[in-house]
Amino acid sequence: MRHRHYLGLSCLPGESLRYIARSGKDLLALIGWSSAALKCTVRDEYIGWDRERKLERLTYVANNVRFLIVPSSVKNLASRILSLNVKRLSGDYQAIYGHPVFLAETFVDFSRFRGTCYRASNWTFLGRTKGYSKNGRYYYENGNPKGVFVYPLSKHALTLLATDFIPAGGALMSEKSRLALTTIPVEGLKEKIHQIIDPRKRRGIRHPLVTILSLSVAAVICGARSYIAIAEWAFSLSRETLLRFGCTRKPPSEPTIRRMLQMIDVEAFDGAIGSWLIGMLPSPEAIALDGKTLRGSGDRKVHLLAAVVHKEGVVIGQTDVDTKTNEITRVAPLLAGMDIEGAVVTGDALLTQREIARHLVEDKKAHYCFTVKDNQETLRGDIEALRMEAFPP
Q1: Does the predicted model carry a pTM greater than 0.90?
Q2: Is 162 exposed, middle or buried (0-12, 13-18, 19+ CB in 10 A)?
Q3: What is the CATH superfamily name and number for domain 282-390?
Q4: CATH 3.80.10.10 is held by the domain 17-162
């Protein structure tokens, strides 16, 4: 890049990514991305940004600042590599910087190039810049306006960049989610959270524990899936709504939310939220017990056993399954404190155990529907001998 690109290999500003395109051992291309340009009139008009919204959403735009193709006899190589790159771009920004990007932009020097590979890859030409360059804090006229090309990385890119709220993953906050916000019984949620012990020292506390946790729970219900999304959601709320959560000043920032959620007693928090959810739902008729390994838990491979209400699909409780034990021994602790009288509990073949069935029927006054496989030969043989096919469960 330093020897072959006319701009050289200077530092890429802001959140940058560098890609190397290869075919076997052969180098095909080098591509560099950075944070979007602060000022670009034709782009801002295309998105529909005012100054305030642009400053809020500029981080969701990536700028293709370098694209070097190594001389090759392969036809359409540049457009092919560019197409493959933009397909993974948003996911890579999400993995590395914790947020997606919805729009790619680039500036083409028409005195040197025609932007053919961008046009061939269906990028949109918006017009030319005003011909200014930035040096430190100041702008100066360079006399060489650049061509501006953009490429939406999502079919809802313009809406996502202009909307009031962007949850993690880029999904729009639906009307259903907005309705959920107005109907969430915040008072009952805060009452449950008050039972959790604040792990912080009293000195220097700016936001009550109940405010941070209740905002976090409501944000997840409304679609947030990361610390950044929770903080953005909280900042998008009106003053009146924030007061419902006990927030009398600016909402907590992303670092504050992240530190608190990492500090609290997760079992106590999970129990409080599960109890709150059960109180909001009608008496569950069917509950599924299922274990899953937590995605992204690294080498430790965190395994959780969860209780999920069939109809609403709501997790009402979960417990950690230590590597030294298994799901069978964690059923009773998971259901402790849950009122499931009269409900039908379902589970896979691993949970088809005599003690679990006894606990559900005698201790919890519930019913069960379990799977029997060939590895439980005696039990399966008993069922076949009793000819249970005609029995209505």
Answers
A1: no
A2: middle
A3: Ribonuclease H-like superfamily/Ribonuclease H (3.30.420.10)
A4: no
